[in-house]
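Two quick folds needed for the group meeting slides. Do the first one here.
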Amino acid sequence: MRKGVFFFFFLLCLGLAACGKNPDEQLEEAKQQAVPAEHKEISMKAGQNSYPPDEETISIEIQNSSKQEVMYGKHFTMDKKVDGVWRTVPFEDGAAFIEVALFIPPGEMAVEEVTLSLFKQPLSEGIYRIVKTVGGESLAAEFSIEKQ
């Protein structure tokens, strides 16, 4: 009987400890922690600094202020800052990107729309970034999700 009561309390404590953890801490740590928003006259930023939690898309602006054409693709990752560490937000199972080369002429800007239904979970409040390779370099566009 004592063993059964002890075992029950052990399981109860274990369950309560698991419930208290922040689910964002379960996300995998991003491979790159420091990613600039700008590199050699190429910059990337979110269309807005903040979006509401029920937003369906986020726009990303890529500015080419150089004198050369710049290439990028559709692929990106999204990270969330959790306790000062960037963690990768997982895509929905089966999510895929088309492999296509896109070009931005010198002095021009491209706008990409990121569909948030590509992710397993709706985005909770916090600081996020989209990371893309543009002109051979990783760039990040930060934004926040917050109730407005």
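Then this one, please, same format:
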Amino acid sequence: MEQIPMHESLEHDIKELSQKLEGASPETQREVLKNAIGKKIQQTPNASPVPQNTIPQTNKTSLLPDYSVNVPEEAKLRAEKLVDLAWHKGLSAGISEAKKSDPLTMDMFHDAITGKLYEEFKKQGMIQ
């Protein structure tokens, strides 16, 4: 898989989230990360919906959770675009756009970005 470079805002988000993982056992790190991202989602104010074509296009391999197999393609595409946006513009940008979407897309985004960041933390040696 092609390595996608991280951007400054995401690097800041990773540093912030890594502080929340300090002291967490290896068994609970994924759940701690998911809860921290969930809290960030809850703290981001809702915004009014905008056309979906304002989210950057992406053509990478899907990182969506297993349950997305039974989800309409449009919802999967929206969630993948949100993950791509968060990866390039930071969690706040991805969360702001995700807040404008339907609950299913929001859940897939939350689960996918948690998994992607969890793997990045492991790769950087921030967690076991």
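Slide caption for protein two: Residues 51 and 78 are 11 Å apart (CA to CA).
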